[in-house]
Amino acid sequence: MNRFLILGTALAALFAAPAFAQSPTTLLNASYDVAREVFAAENEAFIKQHPGVTVDQSHAGTSKQARAIVEGLEADVVTFNQVTDISFLVKQGFVTDDWQQDFANSASPFYSFPSFLVRAGNPKNIKNWDDLARDDVKVVFPNPKTSGNARYTYLAAVAFAKEAFGGDEEKIEAFITKIFDNVPVFDTGGRAATTTFVEREIGDVIVTFEAETRSIAKQYGTDKFESVVPSVSLLAEFPVAIVDKVVDKRGSRDLAKSYLDFLYTEQGQRIAAEFGHRVHNEKISTEFKDEFPEIRLVTVEDVFGGWPKVQEEHFASGAALDKIYGSR
Amino acid sequence: MSAIRTGRKPPRVGDNPLFRGLLIGIVLIVGAILVLAPLILIGFQAFSDGWRVYASTLVHPDTRHAILLTVITALIAVPINTIFGIAAAWAITKFDFPGRRFLLVLIEIPFSISPIVAGVAYLFVYGLQGLFGPVLDTYEIKILFALPGIILASMFVTAPFVARELIPLMQAQGRDLEEAATSLGASGWRTFLTVTLPNIKWALLYGVVLCNARVMGEFGAVSVVSGNIRGQTNTLPLHIELLYHDYQAAGAFASASILAILAVITIIAKVALERQGAGRVPRPALVTQVAVASETKP
């Protein structure tokens, strides 16, 4: 055992364990699971402006993160990809209910939307949502019952159909059912769907967030895939909030605020854009104009009357999604 | 085993060469598909983007910290569980007491329930909304989302490993030797060190190796209580998942290869210890063992 202890000590010295001590010069940012790279870059830039500050990152599915914070994970700020998970923190008394007024654009420094990634050369000529309902097209996206990402896809398709068919419920349902019929496998999550599309080579198009389509192309070869942006899609916000209960306890509110403010600065927005997110800052939007084709975005509030209503009319058991999903 | 070998040789299943070849062939093929191929693929994938990416993943502070954290967890969890395992096995096999069967079942529980249940259970006990959470919070004691929580979760999952290896063996060996040693005047501690321990050491070692491998690889339970803070509470298995989800396949496989290497080191350590042990102490006959125990009595 002694030998192990010596080995352990040697390893500890070798790796130089970082300090576990907490002081207001550290921040913990609880973020969503695929945000590692973008926040690594944002944090590096932020720390350059605030020498002596450390920003720690926690990454997991945001529902899990919200749960962990309620159970005692001391995150000063959250940077999520689902508004509903911050609502959960509000309900539990960790975030004040006017959090969306604390920062610009409903506290969403950047945004994305469901978009398409097709195989190189776009052999099936997929341009818009109605192409997904064609007989000769196979579509890949995860199960909307288990994946937040796919819920956006489902809602975006419904939003398109609502406009296309002038609100004719029967035609909308038939259209969405057709798209669902074109999905050969429903994976449980976005990452599994990517594996299906890229590695098992199933399907002609994968529907996921635009930022995600870029990551996939970057990882698996930009010569093998191309990004296609539909005419209209659904705004997916990336909301941020200060976790009031934690910053009040730790006395880190000022640092937390300056961190989230930084995401809105020109530098912070440029970094987000470099990682495939769309930003509100006009100068940066113009700078990245060529990379981000124009698109008209609709919101959950405008088309569906807000998240609680969406939940009730579409995602509750026995609601619209179950009817379509069950008819398969 | 030896009972089967004695006496006239009865016809056995393995005597048919065709059947034997078929059986060995099937096992080898299935083994290759199930175990060998994925392991080799990890190696290939880890280097798919070249040495440079592999090296840069490993020198990254987050990866290094994940390795360190995994090793620290094992260094704390494995010895504690080893002592617990010996104590539990000893108590169950050498003593009669009410609740013995209950203790046996209790030790088995972590084997049969999913690790995620263990993690969630710890949330209910130590979480801010849980049983002791508010008290711990008042005294600023951090268990969840910090090292203690990771160690506790790992210990829960691996609690049965040592005891499970020892109990059947100690049961088969019975209590005669210990009773003989005691009647010759050896103290309890001496009886354990000179009579029991030499008899169980290989099973013990095997249990420790299994326990260690599982602690290092544990994902589910740790995932719930870790908080996934990079550079602080991200163990190697969690780090691998993070990289994989982040479209850093090469990095994920590079980290996975480290975990595989740690596992191989564990096995090599076991084999080396076995050899060393076998060379130094020729296993004494049972009688001399008891005699030694009584002779060296102070």
List the helices and strands and how they pair.
The complex is a heterodimer of chains A (328) and B (298).
Chain A: H1 2-15, E1 26-31, H2 36-49, E2 54-59, H3 62-70, E3 77-79, H4 83-91, H5 104-107, E4 110-112, E5 114-119, E6 139-140, H6 148-164, H7 169-181, H8 190-198, E7 205-209, H9 210-220, E8 225-228, E9 232-234, E10 236-238, E11 240-242, H10 244-250, H11 253-264, H12 266-274, E12 278-279, H13 282-287, E13 296-298, H14 300-304, H15 307-315, H16 320-326
Parallel strand pairs in A: 1-2, 1-3, 6-7, 9-13
Antiparallel strand pairs in A: 3-11, 4-10, 4-12, 5-7, 5-8
Chain B: H1 2-5, H2 17-46, H3 50-59, H4 61-94, H5 100-112, H6 115-126, H7 133-138, H8 147-158, H9 160-173, H10 176-183, H11 188-217, H12 220-226, H13 236-245, H14 249-280, H15 286-295
Helix pairs in contact in B: 2-14, 3-14, 4-8, 4-9, 4-11, 4-13, 5-9, 6-8, 6-12, 8-11, 8-12, 9-11, 10-11, 10-15, 11-14, 11-15, 13-14
Protein architecture, described:
- The complex is a heterodimer of chains A (328) and B (298).
- Chain A is an alpha/beta fold.
- Helix content of chain A is 47%, strand content 15%.
- Residues 7-22 of chain A have low confidence and may be disordered.
- Chain B has two domains: 1-46; 51-295, MetI-like fold (Orthogonal Bundle).
- Chain B has 15 helices and no strands.
- In chain B, α10 runs antiparallel to α11 (188-217).
- Chain B starts with a helix and ends with a helix.
- At the A-B interface, α1, β2 and α9 of A face α4 and α13 of B.
What are the key terms here?
heterodimer, A: 328 residues, alpha/beta, D-Maltodextrin-Binding Protein, domain 2, 2 domains, 4-stranded mixed β-sheet, 16 helices, 47% helix, globular, B: 298 residues, mainly alpha, MetI-like fold, 15 helices, disordered C terminus
Question: Summary?
Answer:
Chain A has helices spanning 2-15, 36-49, 62-70, 83-91, 104-107, 148-164, 169-181, 190-198, 210-220, 244-250, 253-264, 266-274, 282-287, 300-304, 307-315, 320-326, and strands at 26-31, 54-59, 77-79, 110-112, 114-119, 139-140, 205-209, 225-228, 232-234, 236-238, 240-242, 278-279, 296-298. With 328 residues, chain A is α/β, with parallel strands linked by helices.
